[in-house]
Amino acid sequence: MARVLINLPRTARRGEVIEIRTLIQHVMETGYRPRADGSVAPRDIITHFACLYNNEEVFAAELAPAIAANPFLSFSLVAAESGILAFTWTGDNGFEQTETRSLTVT
Amino acid sequence: MRRLALALLLLGATAEARESSFALMSPETQAMQREDSANPGMLWVEEGRALWDSAGCAGCHGDVAGMRGVAARYPAFDAAPIDLAGRIAQCQEARQHRTPFPRESEEALALAAVIGLQSRGIPVNPPDDPRLAPALARGEALYRERRGQLDLSCAQCHDANAGRHLAGSPIPEAHPTGYPLYRLEWQGMGSLQRRLRNCMTGVRSEPYAYGAPEYVAIELFLMRRAAGMAVETPAVRP
Predict the structure, then answer these.
(1) What angle do CA B48, B51, B56 make, to 5 degrees?
(2) What is the Cα–Cα distance from B82 to B60, expressed in whole angstroms?
(3) Each residue of B56-110: pLDDT tens digit?
(4) Among A61, B77, B106, B178, which residue carries the largest CB count within 10 Å?
(5) Model pTM greater than 0.80?
(6) What residues pair up with A73 in beta bridges, in sequence order?
(7) Rounded to the nearest 10 degrees, what angle do helices B133-144 and B213-225 cross at?
(8) How wide is the angle at C-alpha A55 spanned by C-alphas A104 and A46, nearest 5°?
(9) Chains A, B: CB contacts under 8 A, how many?
(10) How far is CA B215 from the centre of its chain?
(11) Which CATH architecture has domain A4-105?
(12) Which domains occur in chain B, in start order?
C-alpha cells in the first residue's frame, strides 16, 4: 500500500467551494530510463486518478510518464451534501488504491 | 546572566549573517515545504510514524512526540561521534538485537524524518562535548581540504562563493538544517550523507562509503556552524 496524504476540510457549508489536495507515494518510473546495467527500467506509473463524491465522479485526471514521482493533485469542488469522497489511483502493474474521506455539509 | 546575554548577542550576530538555502528557492518550492499537505517528505514522516510503532521504538521511547529536540542535538558522542541515523541503527542493533535498517533505505530515512520533524523549528544545538573536539577539527579540515579532479574544497563554494551561482543554480551556505529532505532532483528522500556524496562526485572525487566517520565529522562541523538556526526537517530542495 502506497502512503497517501489527503487534505480536505471535515465540514463545509452547503454551496461552499472546497479545495482538496492529494499526494501519493509512487515512483512514476518513466519507462525511458536506463538502469546501471544498461537495460531500460520498465514503465511503472499511475495512469488514472478519479474522485467520486457519493459515487458520482467529480474529478478525474490522466497521468503521463513525464509527471514527477509522488504526484500531487489539487482540485476543488462544490460541497453539495454530506457524504463520502472516494479517491482512486490506478496504474501500471495492476496498481490500484482507494482512500475514502467523509465530508459533513451543514 | 551576562554570559547568557553575550551568548544571545553572539548567536544573534551570527544568525543574522547566515541563511538557510530555503531562502534561495523559488516561491513555489518554498510553498511546497511550508505546506505539510504538499510536502512529499511528509509521506516518509507518515511511514516513519507507522514504523515507530511497528519496529518497536515506542516500546521504550513512548510517543514519538517525546523525541522533541533530539534531532537538533546530533551528531553526539557515544564511544565515537555518532549521527542520528547511526544512533537509530545502534539502538536497533544493541538494544533490539535486530539487523538495523540499512543506511539510506526508505525505512531508515522514514524513521529519521519522523524524529527530525519533532524538532522542526527548534534551534540546532550540537552538544558541547569535549570528546567531540577531534572529530570537529577533522570535519573542519575536511571542509577546507581541496579534493577531486576539480581540486575544490567545500569552503571554496559554500563560504567564498555562497549566494553566487554555479551553472545557474544558487550556491547555498551549506547549513544542513533540513535533513533528511525531499529533493526534487532525486524524486525522493535523502540524507545529508547522500548530499555530501553528490558534492564529492560533483568535484570528481571519490565519495566515502555511507556511514563513514568522515561524514559524521563533516556533519558535526556543519551543525556547529549552523548552531542556532531552526531545524526544517523534512525540508524540500530543488
Answers:
(1) 135
(2) 20
(3) 999 999 999 999 999 999 999 999 999 999 999 999 999 999 999 999 999 999 9
(4) B178
(5) yes
(6) A22
(7) 90
(8) 105
(9) 34
(10) 11
(11) Sandwich (2.60)
(12) 20-237 (1.10.760.10)
Give the separation between CA A72 and CA B186, rounded to whole angstroms. Answer: 16
Residue type, B190: G
Q: Which residues contact B213 (CB under 8 A, 6 or more apart)?
A: B80, B81, B135
Terminal Cα-to-Cα distance of chain B (whole angstroms): 42
Q: CA of B114 to nearest chain A CA: how many angstroms apart?
A: 14
Predicted pLDDT at B16:
53
With H, G, I as helix, E, B as strand and everything else as coil, classify residue B144: helix
Told to judge if B199 belongs to the known catalytic residues of this protein, a careful annotator would answer: yes
Which residue carries 551570527 as its cell? B14
A19-71 residue pLDDT tens: 999 999 999 999 999 999 999 999 999 999 999 999 999 999 999 999 999 99
CB A46 within 8 A of CB A90: yes
User: Is A5 within 8 Å of B46 when comparing Cβ atoms?
Assistant: yes
Q: Quick one: how far is CA B161 from the chain centroid?
A: 21
Q: Which residue of B has its CA nearest to A74?
A: B38
CA distance A54 to A58: 9
Is B46 close to A21, i.e. CB distance below 8 A?
A: no
Across-strand partners of A18? A77
Instruction: Please give the ipTM for the structure prediction.
Output: 0.90
**Cβ-proximal residues to A106 (8 Å cutoff; 6+ apart), any chain:** A11, A12, A13, A14
First to last CA, chain A: 33
- The Cα B112–Cα B86 span in angstroms is 10
Residue among B17, B3, B57 at smallest CA distance from B229:
B17
Cα separation, B221 vs B142, in Å, equals 9
Of residues B57, B154, B157, B199, which has the active-site annotation?
A: B199
Q: Specify the DSSP element, H or E, that contains B12.
A: helix B2-17
For the residues B27-43, what does the mean pLDDT come to? 96
Instruction: Give me the residue spans of the domains in chain A.
Output: 4-105
